[in-house]
Amino acid sequence: MAYDPNNIFARILRGELPARKIYEDEYALAFHDIHPLAPVHALVIPKGAYVSFDDFAATARAAEITGFFRAVAKTAELLGLGPTGYRILANHGPDSHQEVPHLHIHVFGGGPLGPMLTRLS
Ligand code: AMP
Fold first, then answer.
1. Residue 100 C-alpha to ligand 1 middle, in angstroms?
2. Burial code of 68-93, b = ≥16 C-beta within 10 A, e = fewer?
3. pLDDT over 90 for what percent of the chain?
4. What is the domain partition of the chain in residue ranges?
5. Statement: residue 121 has pLDDT above 80
């Protein structure tokens, strides 16, 4: 799938749309999800143009991958989630229900999160 430079998160990276920023460095930007699914729900996105985790893992430089995952951990730390715990999640492709075609890691926390997924049957 080709990268769409006009996806919502690309526009946030360019400063064309607002975001409640938590953390930013040369590799990543972290901000609060607009429709939180937990008491704390942040999104961390790489600065590079990657459609999803699959694309990122296959094509990003090692420094980008390291920098990005350090930024995810830094975001959780800044949100005070380390001691009580948190969950990270990335959707890739249609079965996962990925909505925005720019890689994003969800960071959930701030209270008990319950089981990881609902049983299918
Ligand atoms: P996903 O289903 O993994 O693609 O998740 C996309 C997430 O982006 C959802 O949790 C949305 O609530 C969130 N989202 C969409 N637009 C915005 C926005 N403008 N600012 C912050 N979060 C957003």
1. 7
2. bbebbebbbeebebeeeebebebbee
3. 94
4. 1-45+77-106
5. no
The CA-CA-CA angle for residues 52, 28, 99, to 5°, reads 30
Is there a catalytic annotation at residue 32? no
Superfamily of domain 1-45+77-106 in the CATH hierarchy:
HIT-like (3.30.428.10)
Query: How far, in Å, is the centroid of ligand 1 from the Cα of 42?
Result: 10
Q: Is the pTM of this model over 0.90?
A: yes
CA nearest to 10, candidates 57, 37, 39, 48: 48
Whole-angstrom distance, CA of residue 15 vs CA of residue 1: 24
Q: What is the 8-class DSSP label of residue 57?
A: H
pLDDT for 91-104, tens place per residue? 999 999 999 999 99
